[in-house]
Amino acid sequence: MKNRRDFLKIGGAGLAAVASTPFLANATNVVKGKKIPEDLTILLQGDSITDAGRDKSKLGINDTAGLGRGYAFQIVTNMLGSQPKANLQFYNRGISGNKVFQLADRWDEDCLSLKPDVLSILIGVNDFWHSLKDYKGTAQVYDADFRKLLDRTLKALPNVKLIIGEPFAIKGGKAINEKWYPDFPEYQKYAAAIAKDYKAEYVPFQKVFDDALNVAPVSYWCPDGVHPSMAGGYLMKEAWVKAFNRLF
Amino acid sequence: MKNRRDFLKIGGAGLAAVASTPFLANATNVVKGKKIPEDLTILLQGDSITDAGRDKSKLGINDTAGLGRGYAFQIVTNMLGSQPKANLQFYNRGISGNKVFQLADRWDEDCLSLKPDVLSILIGVNDFWHSLKDYKGTAQVYDADFRKLLDRTLKALPNVKLIIGEPFAIKGGKAINEKWYPDFPEYQKYAAAIAKDYKAEYVPFQKVFDDALNVAPVSYWCPDGVHPSMAGGYLMKEAWVKAFNRLF
């Protein structure tokens, strides 16, 4: 009801429709009493968790197949459906297997040229995971590479608003073993510190999943501990949208 | 808060997690104070709107790629995410271009053998649309075929709960023209009457979209008037979940 009252205060078109269609009660670009700017371009960047099987030949704005089947798709469907007046424009440019330096390699084309107003980055699990195999990077390299990428981003796009997702590893998942500890949490500490230093909204995905394990097992939320199920993607979407709403 | 109180009454595991994770406040199999039965098998049937590009080699329960990118996917992600204790099991068996008689042709394999507890059917737009081309069926054929299909279903699955979606055509969409009227609404009348006669929950998709046109144009919700956008899929999901919740 709060949203509804706030909407009434702001007024605007579509009130009759809102009243007759209860699920459109918040179908305005009003979130918690604050107005979302219109025409935002929102870029979702990351690795396989963001990629989630997207069709990489479909690069247009709000392209259904180009958004993949992961948390990104859930974010976009939810925000487009519930904020129809905001004219939100989403891109997904996650690529499976990416580490920070691989984002940097494709950053001109896959970030800067898109001129996002909001940039969401979820990166780090491979920076650690691949170090168990042939990758030579460390947590310090992750930290330095990530800061360099953000410096470059802010130089080109000084007004971009940032969302940084916490890289996560869910204990009990098939790909997670004792080799992940205590090293992987170091990457999470760096991600949190970077978010603070760069005034990004931080999405605490590890806590989201850890809490969810009290409700259903890891097989339900994230079978291998790295790649979320549809239900896990729902948790991520919920947490991400909260972070997004804090930006405005 | 109501859900929360009802959950407290029913009790159960996971309370601490629910309290610490606000978006899991309704992460139980409790909807509006009623308990959803556990282990429900839910089958989504229909035409291209349900199909929505699903990978037809992926036929398993809750298969991400097998669910397509339409309202079905949005239903499943939302229900699995928000009802993690219910062990819901979804199948999508929509096939593009289908009319009622084509559902009947594949009904043994694509419905009866799956033994759904809840069967959702959205069918009818092609029964009309293709009659503008080479299909000889009429609204009366649609009505008779649909009733025959449901009689057969209830004979095999006497306890199945039914959801029937209203076939819809959104005015202003590129595929919709004056040839659709007054004939197409006849199919909608039959669908509504069938839902009533067979005690199905009816999802009034036409009204959902018509109301939404007061908030954003047809190009936003359903560009060709037949196939919803992601935002249109969100509206359908919201309306479908309401109908689902009325079943219990």
How large is the share of residues in beta strands of chain A? Answer: 5-15%
Secondary-structure class of chain A: alpha/beta
Oligomer: homodimer
Radius of gyration over C-alpha positions of chain A, nearest whole angstrom: 18 Å
Number of strands of chain A: 7
Task: Give the count of helical stretches of chain A.
Answer: 12
Task: Report the CATH architecture of chain A.
Answer: 3-Layer(aba) Sandwich
Greatest contact between two chains? A-B, 46 and 47 residues
C-alpha termini separation of chain A: 20 Å
Mean of all residue-level pLDDT scores of chain A = 90
What is the number of independent domains of chain A?
A: 1
- CATH names the topology of chain A as Rossmann fold
CATH homologous group name of chain A: SGNH hydrolase
Helix content of chain A: 40-55%
CATH class of chain A: Alpha Beta
Describe this structure in words.
Two copies of one chain form a homodimer. The longest helix of chain A is centred in the middle third of the chain and has 18 residues, at 139-156. Chain A has twelve helices and seven strands. Chain A has helices at 2-10, 15-20, 48-51, 71-82, 100-105, 107-110, 125-129, 139-156, 183-197, 205-212, 218-221, 230-246, and strands spanning 30-31, 34-35, 41-46, 89-92, 118-122, 161-165, 201-203. In chain A, strand 6 (161-165), helix 9 and strand 7 (201-203) form a beta-alpha-beta unit. The relative contact order of chain A is 0.13. In chain A, the strands form two sheets. Chain A has a five-stranded parallel sheet, sandwiched between helices. Chain A has a two-stranded antiparallel sheet with strand order 1-2. In chain A, 44% of the residues lie in helices and 11% in strands. The first copy, chain A, has a single domain, classed as SGNH hydrolase (Rossmann fold), CATH 3.40.50. The first copy, chain A, has 248 residues and is of the alpha/beta class.
